[in-house]
Write a structure and sequence with these properties.
Layout: H1 4-10, E1 22-27, E2 31-37, H2 57-76, E3 84-96, E4 105-116, E5 119-128, E6 131-144
Antiparallel strand pairs: 1-2, 2-4, 3-6, 4-5, 5-6
Length: 145
């Protein structure tokens, strides 16, 4: 549904911090399904960990938040170039169930729980081949730049 060129219109992130490769499904105001292809060439694997590469948990959370950010921007019919930015401002019930390693395809899902005065709440989860990797409730704030 969205390739990386369109994703770049809705996220201000760029290499090496753009963590969404494709959007498979998106229903404005409701949900998104996106993917991140994890390769051994990711810059974080040089130090985390050189002999046993594991994707850092904070980057898995960031990938889920970026998917939620695309959903929020599309729902509001806004883009970062319009002078709007989405900040990650909190998480609850964050859990990690299994490591993410090179070769995995991370499936990122987000559902809108609520939006009040520019503060969005999402249920998010990341899976690999149907196995739960991580889940959380996250908060994002839409702000002017």
């Amino acid at each position: 549904m969205m390739d990386v060129n369109e994703i770049r219109e809705y996220l201000p992130h760029r290499y090496p911090f753009l963590l969404v490769d494709r959007v498979l499904e998106l229903e404005k105001g409701d949900s998104i399904v996106a993917i991140k292809n994890v390769t051994v060439n990711e810059p974080f694997f040089n130090g985390h960990f050189p002999d046993h590469p594991v994707m850092p948990g904070v980057l898995i959370v960031e990938a889920m938040a970026q998917a939620a950010g695309i959903l929020g921007f599309k729902t509001m019919d806004k883009k970062p170039q319009d002078g709007s930015i989405y900040y990650f401002v909190g998480s609850d019930k964050l859990r990690f169930k299994r490591p993410v390693v090179p070769g995995d395809q991370l499936k990122l899902e987000a559902k809108v729980i609520s939006e009040r005065r520019g503060i969005w709440k999402f249920d998010v989860q990341a899976t690999v081949e149907g196995d739960m990797v991580s889940s959380a409730t996250i908060l994002c704030a839409d702000r002017k730049v």
